[in-house]
Protein 1
Amino acid sequence: MLTTPVWRVPGMPLLLTMTVLGFSGYAALLAVAPLWAVRGGADSVGAGLVNGVLMLFTVLTQLFVPRALRRFGWAPVLVTGMLLLGLPALAHGLSDALAPTLALSAVRGLGFGVLTVTGSALVAELVEPRRRGQAIGAYGLAIAVPQVLFLSAGPWVAERLGFWVVFAVAALPALAAVPAVGLARRLDHVPEGDDERVPWASLLPPMALLIGATLAGGALITFMAPMSSSAALTALALLVMSVAAAFARWRVGAWSDRHGPQRFLAPLVLLTTAGLAVIAWAVRDPQATVAPALLAGAAVVGISYGGLQNLTLVVTFQAVSRQHYGPASAVWNIGFDAGTGAGAVVVGMVAAGTSFSTALLVAGGISLLTLPLALGRAARRTRAGGPPRGAG
């Protein structure tokens, strides 16, 4: 019997279109906005705060998205989020001073909080559980492709063609309001349920594992340019990381459906730490980056960064019933964005007092602290016996 490809399941094309447009705007400024602040006179701490503030307001918004969906419905929340993420990007060109840059990052964080929580919740709404790993893989690919195109090229485009080009690309989420309306019309289920009944304790381990991975990713995205000795090498390293993350997030979905996600968690945590250590060695001399080591480390971190995103989201949705998809999505996205923001702020602060090499080793140590959680989940599955949930 033929099975409809997961990206053609009703509603998925609209979701993937909204996701591509939304994350195009997010990715375009993620590495460029800190550079814009540096151009205006900010130091490494100020540059780190640009993405730190973005993620802080993203996380604060994510706390309220499930409640907003219950109160207002899908269409108003989705459309408002897309406009808040896209339109403020154009205002960046008015000033490169740190204060207005941080203010615009805060507003964009409101929109990004909506996009992230609703997007991952909609994957669970639209696709049956036995194919959820593949669906999350397709959703992850829609997130990763814009990062491959815009994250790696953003700094180069800004320097060679002008920052305004990047600001224009970053406004693309405003166009995502169109598929958002179409997607909302297909949904007959408004998230319900009592937040007090959400199994919060079961959601914390995958959230912590995700923080360890995204802390590493956030650090590299924010500081790859200032810690690399050439703009071309920066672009190539970010491209390698983005492609590796896209491939891992896509392919691990099918493996998760077949074998369950738990067996892959611990190896990916170790890859995060190993990749950061290699990059720390590569950038120990800021005037002479060791290019092969930087690219190898970026690829390794990219694999763990993408793979853990998929697997932790699968584990998160396994822990709840349908009425709690919204809160579960919020918790997962809080972990994602808290880790990304913490990576920018922590590495920026440590690097300001020591070096980028030391800061990356600290980030690798923090990621390694999550290993017992990955091993603990695997051990509990083994003791329980039988195939893991989600195995096909």
Protein 2
Amino acid sequence: MHATASIYGFLAVGGMLAVTPGPNMVYVMSRSIAQGRRAGLISLAGVMLGYLFYMFGAAFGITALFLSVPFAGSLLGAGGAAYLFYLAWQAVKPGGRSPLEVRELPREQPRRLFAMGAATSLLNPKLAMIFLSLLPQFIDYQNGSVLRQSLVLGSSLIVAFASVNGFVAICSGGMATFLANRPGLLLAQRWTMGVVLFALGAHMSMDALRLAGIH
């Protein structure tokens, strides 16, 4: 795959996942709604540590080691699909709540907000799926340094994720206030998110089956 096409293709797929609510986005959003924009941005700074950890881990060989295990790619893909199905169910299940609903959270100091953001990011299976499984598929091993390509792709994705989550941190408080007395819109948001997550999970399941040689 041509290097430029690799970047565009990777960003297209990663961008779809970046705008899909996951643990990092929900954490940043909830802190911004409950404690203000500053708290949301501090939380995002902690989340960035997880991005950097997975990017450098993938770039320096964790990916090659992990994918050397038979069926590791298909197993990781199946795990990622199961996680997306779980998020879809959480979005549409009876009694479920939209991440944009205002809720009471204890106020935390900046240091703890940062630490909680880092922990949420490091334990996020969505990031592991992207950096340990998705990124290597867009590297052209015949086109120069694999390390350089990994860092370029990973850095581009980090910018996309940080931009989306930064927008969430700044704007989610206002959106939550707007939607507070509009339960119909909150329900529509939940179902839209659930359908998108389910579709992504189904697509990932098919990819995992193809990797395992099951047709």
Protein 3
Amino acid sequence: MHQDEAACAEPEESGPVRRCALTRERRPKEELLRFVLGPDGEIVPDLKERLPGRGVWLTAARDCVADAAKRNVFARALKAQVAVPKDLADRVDRLLADAALGALGLANKAGGIVFGNGKVEDALARGRVIRLVHAQEAAEDGCRKLDAKFGARSVNKAVPPIRTFGTEELSLASGRTNVIHAALIQDGAAEKFVEAAKRVERYRDGSAAFAKMDRDTEPE
């Protein structure tokens, strides 16, 4: 249940933990999104956490952002009149996706990813793959075959493939055509893409993803 006292403005917290203005739960900063009041009085997502002004932090879940907009959380937290874009949750989704696809492009330039079924199978055979990437349109049969090979070769067999983006998005980000399958290999840039893609997935899955994450980290 969301409390009205969440409206009270508090000094912005320092350190690696922030409090969600909607749920009032404290979470690691990387699990939240920062919003600020723009010069025109409109709420602006600040994914890079660089914009000036007091920040309002929300759990990085699509339903949380949408709910905060409906409940007037931004105005109460900032103690000011604000304009909240009707498509705020969609804007955040696009910004997160663009950030992840940008990381994919950097991983490609750094040689941290290979594309195409043949190159992916070769990388799998050599045990170089840290994560598979399948386009949303990829045929299930082809995905299952590659996933099985990954499971047979990988130390961490439980690592799921990334299926967050469509062929067009993957193709544009990599500067290639018709990207269906890709494999991330041992490289720092590839790991950054993995983290960014996971953030997009959690955002789209909503609060349920964070609830599951909390349950999984609870001590037995």
